[in-house]
């Protein structure tokens, strides 16, 4: 059963009670500052985690064109302890309707703490494969490129199929990814298969 990290009850407006903080003017830099802050907190407390999403792609050499939030992957059983660590640091932590993540705010930016990637629980093996990478001068575990691309592509479905967001990441990291492993892990699901067809036609793979 998914752990419940929601005690005490969250406020109605999760950003309203966050202490005022000075934000970088640039949104990309604001997201990086949030990633650095949360990553440093989790690392200091010894949590098993990895940076994920577009900030992870940037850390591996992708474009500094970040999406709307910062993503971290953790094991389901660690959700309550991670939530406590973030609350102790003064961050607001709350639970959205989805049951596969918790959310926080840092420097006014949304941070997703995810314990299910591509509809599968995050496991210790994936997190242990994470690579220690400098994220804008702060070193932290970052999902390995192959796991990162799998997490993006395997999540495609009829209801979520944002090829436009994943394509630049695939281009940037293509030489670092074990594409055959990603293809095997995605199986014969139609949306991932369509994305692989696009990558082949564009000579990305």
UniProtKB/TrEMBL annotation:
<feature type="region of interest" description="Disordered">
    <location>
        <begin position="1"/>
        <end position="24"/>
    </location>
</feature>
<protein>
    <submittedName>
        <fullName>Nucleotidyltransferase family protein</fullName>
    </submittedName>
</protein>
<dbReference type="InterPro" id="IPR043519">
    <property type="entry name" value="NT_sf"/>
</dbReference>
<feature type="compositionally biased region" description="Pro residues">
    <location>
        <begin position="1"/>
        <end position="13"/>
    </location>
</feature>
<dbReference type="Pfam" id="PF14907">
    <property type="entry name" value="NTP_transf_5"/>
</dbReference>
<dbReference type="InterPro" id="IPR039498">
    <property type="entry name" value="NTP_transf_5"/>
</dbReference>
